[in-house]
């Protein structure tokens, strides 16, 4: 994480400096820093992918333990009746029909969601907005290219599909299957 922050800071410093005499040198260094940033970002994402399932299992086990320990205990009383799915989540593990009461499962789930958001904001775990925007634009370009490819194939009248169909036909020759 520290290396990633250091590379980001260097990249930002290079953006600020713009000396006309050393422009080529700066561009080369900037490209190198961008490659380093991409490499470090890939490493961080790979680490997140490995830790994700373990974290999920730990959360599930912890939630089951809490639910068993606090079954039927009201942890909080809400000043309103929660809507839809939240109603079932907050009242889970409690007896009765008073949906303003919150059980352990609802309390833990809402607390975990809030804590996750605060931790991500505090440690800046999410990728920078510029990186996310670039990734979004690249995915949009790829999607548009695929859509255009399919549109060209559909406009051609299916001539290619008929050729492929003829190519893949199988005929029987002397008791064995052979392709045409």
- Gyration radius from CA atoms, angstroms: 29 Å
Count of discrete alpha- or pi-helical segments spanning 4 or more residues: 6
Largest sheet: 2 strands, antiparallel
- Tertiary shape: elongated
Hey, roughly how much beta strand do the residues contain?
5-15%
Share of helix among residues?
A: over 70%
Description:
- This protein is mainly alpha-helical and 180 residues long.
- It folds into 2 domains: 1-61; 70-149, no CATH class.
- The chain has helices at 2-16, 23-69, 84-91, 104-123, 129-155, 159-167, and strands at 76-77, 101-102, 170-173, 176-179.
- A two-stranded antiparallel ribbon has the order 1-2.
- α1 runs antiparallel to α2 and α3 packs across α4.
- The longest helix has 47 residues, at 23-69.
- The protein is elongated, with a radius of gyration of 29 Å.
- The N and C termini lie far apart (59 Å).
- The mean pLDDT is 76.
What's the arrangement of secondary structure elements?
Elements: H1 2-16, H2 23-69, E1 76-77, H3 84-91, E2 101-102, H4 104-123, H5 129-155, H6 159-167, E3 170-173, E4 176-179
Antiparallel strand pairs: 1-2, 3-4
Helix pairs in contact: 1-2, 3-4
Question: Which key terms come to mind for this protein?
Answer:
two-stranded antiparallel ribbon, two-stranded antiparallel sheet, elongated, mainly alpha, 6 helices, 70% helix, 180 residues, 2 domains
């Amino acid at each position: 994480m520290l290396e990633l922050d250091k590379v980001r800071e260097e990249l930002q410093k290079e953006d600020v400096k713009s000396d006309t005499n050393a422009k080529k040198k700066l561009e080369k260094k900037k490209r190198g820093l961008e490659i380093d940033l991409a490499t470090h970002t890939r490493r961080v994402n790979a680490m997140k992918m490995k830790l994700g399932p373990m974290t999920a299992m730990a959360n599930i086990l912890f939630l089951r333990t809490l639910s068993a320990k606090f079954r039927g205990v009201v942890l909080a009383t809400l000043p309103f009746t929660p809507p839809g799915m939240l109603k079932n989540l907050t009242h889970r593990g409690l007896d009765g029909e008073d949906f303003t009461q919150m059980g352990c499962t609802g309390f833990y789930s809402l607390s975990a969601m809030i804590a996750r958001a605060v931790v991500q904001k505090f440690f800046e775990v999410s990728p920078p907005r510029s990186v996310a925007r670039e990734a979004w634009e690249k995915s949009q370009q790829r999607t548009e290219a695929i859509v255009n490819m399919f549109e060209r194939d559909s406009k051609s009248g299916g001539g290619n599909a008929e050729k492929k169909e003829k190519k893949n036909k199988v005929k029987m020759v002397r008791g064995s299957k052979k392709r045409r």
